[in-house]
Specification:
homodimer; alpha/beta; Isopropylmalate Dehydrogenase; 2 domains; two-stranded antiparallel ribbon; 40% helix; amino-acid biosynthesis (chains A, B); EC 1.1.1.85 (chains A, B); NAD (chains A, B); metal-binding (chains A, B)
Chain lengths: 350, 350
Amino acid sequence: MSRTVKLAVIPGDGIGPEVVGEALKVLDAAVQGGDVRFEQTPFSLGAARFLETGDVLTDADLAAIASHDAILLGAVGGVPGDPRLANANIERGLLLKLRFSLDHYVNLRPTVVYPGVPSPLSEPGDVNFVVVREGTEGPYVGNGGAIRQGTPHEIANEVSVNTAYGVERVVRYAFAAAAARQGKLTLVHKTNVLVFAGSLWKRVVDAVSAEFPDVAVDYLHVDAATIFLVTDPARFDVIVTDNLFGDILTDLAGAISGGIGLAASGNINPDGTYPSMFEPVHGSAPDIAGKQLADPTAAILSVSLMLSHLGLETEAARVATAVTADIAARTGAARTTTEVGDAIAALAAN
Amino acid sequence: MSRTVKLAVIPGDGIGPEVVGEALKVLDAAVQGGDVRFEQTPFSLGAARFLETGDVLTDADLAAIASHDAILLGAVGGVPGDPRLANANIERGLLLKLRFSLDHYVNLRPTVVYPGVPSPLSEPGDVNFVVVREGTEGPYVGNGGAIRQGTPHEIANEVSVNTAYGVERVVRYAFAAAAARQGKLTLVHKTNVLVFAGSLWKRVVDAVSAEFPDVAVDYLHVDAATIFLVTDPARFDVIVTDNLFGDILTDLAGAISGGIGLAASGNINPDGTYPSMFEPVHGSAPDIAGKQLADPTAAILSVSLMLSHLGLETEAARVATAVTADIAARTGAARTTTEVGDAIAALAAN
Ligand SMILES: CC(C)[C@H](C(=O)O)[C@@H](O)C(=O)O
Ligand SMILES: CC(C)[C@H](C(=O)O)[C@@H](O)C(=O)O
């Protein structure tokens, strides 16, 4: 009756390997003694790999990763401004390529203000919401182009592509999430300016809303949403939005909840056709890499999201509870990356 | 030797007429006794006009407005969800049409945290920056479209158009602004994802930078910029960014500086070919309209921006100083819209 989960691990660059190490330690602790086993395959991908081999993500890498049940990613990206990386675009070639190739149409980003965690807001209130960010469309599709590049007559266009198919599936996921939470869904867009995309999103939300009579629906323009995120973040339950607005709002959400060091995310293919990928929202932070300064909590919380996605709810809750307990016990004294991981692993093993 | 400024006044909807009334009161006070005279022409435009006549902005309106030296606008937009306005899109048809037709390529939005004004941030620090938002390009151009609308096969596209011509002129304006301030310019974009538009913005900033050796240049992705706006807003001096990112960042900036009730803006045509337009960043807030609850300060500060744009620096400073003095004297006791206007007008008359 034992189950084996094939886990692709992409530690990546900078602080990625450090935080992934702690996340795997907590994973081990949370599943130990149970009947599920994680069989890990490491993948060396990111700026370091590119500098070594010139590859960003080969077809063979992609096929190998796709044959796993789930992916844990640390962070990818080299030192900003490194001239050797000028034409690499690790973000588009690796991170976004994985999200698009593996049809991660739900980018799930929860925000919780934990008691005791200092927020830049003087009165954050009881903040607990999740952003359901579309992951495979919008301005991220890479359908831009330029003419007369490098001349005074250059024109550079970016195209945001939005389909009924793509919007409906993520909106339905968001409604289901809201129904399982506080029953409140906020669509964020810019319907007054982006009238075609906005109209599609609005009509899809209205249509799917009929299937979820118990979910209250609200709408905010993206600019107004940023205001409420700092003046009244407790008002939100589930936010559904497009790829770019979701990118912006979730960094802001990470900041108000006391730092991107706690922000976890899942790039989810709810259909199960492809493995889902779990990663902290933060980047590779090369400036603090290797110094045991990084907070591994976001990576650890990403493991909790992964366990939950795999149906291992007991183990997921064990990790989440361990994090909450660890945060509640924080005194403000500095701890190394390993110390945080050890503490949470000990709590998760209970 | 007296000078006459022809001022088009668009009070608009909701709280627009109230705040414009106070702004004009302060304008009168600041210029009284001097040798410049403001000859005002009111234009009835907005949701109310649309409901009355079906017009949003006629060619005749536009031509008449364009023949003025400057424009003061309150706020336009009806009650959200009003079914009679469902197809009006006052924003695109009026506000954006004015900005585009009058080539307002600089949308100037200063942010100051005034001592004594409560900010949602616990430690905002010494915040004083200005966002130079591009006003005539980007995803605002209205070049979107849809096929198979209303079917499960709908595809809705939005196109962001960026030209070397358009980017360079606003970037040059921003550099000049930075040179006259603290000498620090931050480009905000999303170059790692919007690679064509991002590359154009980046290259233009690099090129123009050579003309301003004393301005230090910095770059932030838009998502990271929202983090710094809540964790360290004092780091910014001048931010230059595209139309959509500027829209988002300036609402957030308004929120952290103690509310959109203080956020002023200028839609500027620096060439002087067309009149520039000054407006508070806030909307028409129909829920509090006519109740003397609106804070006219943003509209009054917009008058200060207007005076400065018209070269009337003494008068501009008089208004700005009056606002600062009024804010410093605020006790937290509620004042009516008129009371705030009266107080600032009295100070500006000195
Ligand atoms: C690195 C970048 C491409 C990425 C994004 O924009 O999605 C990141 O900001 C994120 O939010 O995961
Ligand atoms: C009303 C809307 C079209 C406008 C914009 O998006 O520019 C507003 O939000 C602003 O910032 O002035």
